Amino acid sequence: MLIIASSNGAIGIDQAMDALKNGGSALDAVEIGIRLVEANPEEHSVGYNGYPNILGELELDASLMDGRTLDSGAVALLRGYPYAISVARQVMERDIPHVLLAGEGAERFAREIKAEQWESMLTPEIVEVWREGLEAVGATQWVARQSDKIPEITDQTPLLDWVKLATDPERVHGTVNFIAIDGNGDIASGVSTSGWAWKYPGRIGDSPIIGAGNYADNRYGACACTGMGEMAIRAGTARSLVLYLKMGMSLGEAARQAMMDLRDLGGDYIGGMNLIALDRNGEHVGMSSRAGAIYIYQTASMKSYQECERDLVKIPGRWGNRPLD
Ligand code: ASP
User: Fold this and answer.
1) Which domain CATH number covers 31?
2) How many domains does the chain fold into?
3) How far away, in angstroms, is 96 Cα from ligand 1 center?
4) Could you tell which of 171, 196, 234, 269 is best to mutate to test the pocket of ligand 1, judged by most ligand atoms within 8 Å of the CB?
5) Which of 67, 98, 139, 140 has its CA 20 to 30 A from that of 307?
6) Catalytic member of 175, 193, 226, 237
7) Residue 310 has what DSSP assignment?
8) Rounded to the nearest whole angstrom, what is the distance from the C-alpha of residue 119 to the centroid of ligand 1?
9) pLDDT tens digits, one per residue of 110-130
């Protein structure tokens, strides 16, 4: 039994491991671990109290994958429901032929299955951080007008320029990743995020895109990503890594190759990327484009999780015509 997670999964990894020890499945462990992160008000990139979009609305993305069958479930742009990972699991497990539900359809589904709904998804402190973030780039006009409420913006409000100014590549990182191997040797993976701070409404990242931010296949292994989701979508990162395992690469080689694919992307917007991965033998690895980044792991015989340093593959960042160091 093994669980690996991004470092913000520390709050959930013990309970996830307890679930495995009590006979729970890898899917159970992934869901339990991620739910605890989604409910954590101190974590501003996942679930409740995440950073909202440019309009001050919190839109959640999540997915999970069952390595036994490659069954998957995902939701995108989910508002009002803190446990996006549980809604994603229901998309997979209810008797419907879909994998990904987004926006109002996802919310309708969540309502129909009676998923836990919270009236307020943001604390006043985060609304204030959002307002300051917009004021910092000169969007004072309408932010000031909103006083202490989530704003009512009309369809005519121009957002394009503000999104470009306000989204901050330094804040792009933030997703929780969990991958588990249970007592039967089955593998599952899951990810959940509130996406970029101040993103354009309707922007969907890699987290709900199976093959981009998340992938699990019992026969080879699993991978989950955090970082600039657009890059993982373009490179098909999580699926690529598992495919490299299938092609016979070692876990280390496969992970490095997946990072090199990201490093080689063209285009004007390139930010940071991180991944964690394991193979079916229980070897695990973490990679990052940032030096000193860590991930965590726990086996059944460990009392608590252990931190591991991620291997570094530098990806020179750029934002429009500005290089990022
Ligand atoms: N990958 C997430 C997204 O692009 C955010 C992150 O992990 O930084 O939505």
Assistant:
1) 3.60.20.30
2) 1
3) 27
4) 196
5) 67
6) 175
7) P
8) 25
9) 999 999 999 999 999 998 888
Tokens (6 digits) for 267: 């285009």
Confidence (pTM): 0.94
CA-to-CA separations, 229 to 69, 139, 219, in angstroms, rounded? 25, 25, 26
The Å distance, Cα 19 to ligand 1 centre, comes to 27
Each as own residue / partner, the long-range contacts of residues 314-317 (CB below 8 Å, 24 or more positions apart, any chain) are 314/263, 314/289, 315/259, 315/262, 315/263, 315/270, 315/272, 315/273, 315/289, 316/263, 316/270, 317/169, 317/270, 317/271, 317/272, 317/289
Q: Residues 167-219: pLDDT tens digits?
A: 766 655 689 999 999 999 999 999 999 998 888 899 999 999 999 999 999 99
Residue 56 lies in a domain: yes
DSSP code, position 210: B
For residue 138, being part of any structural domain is answered with: no
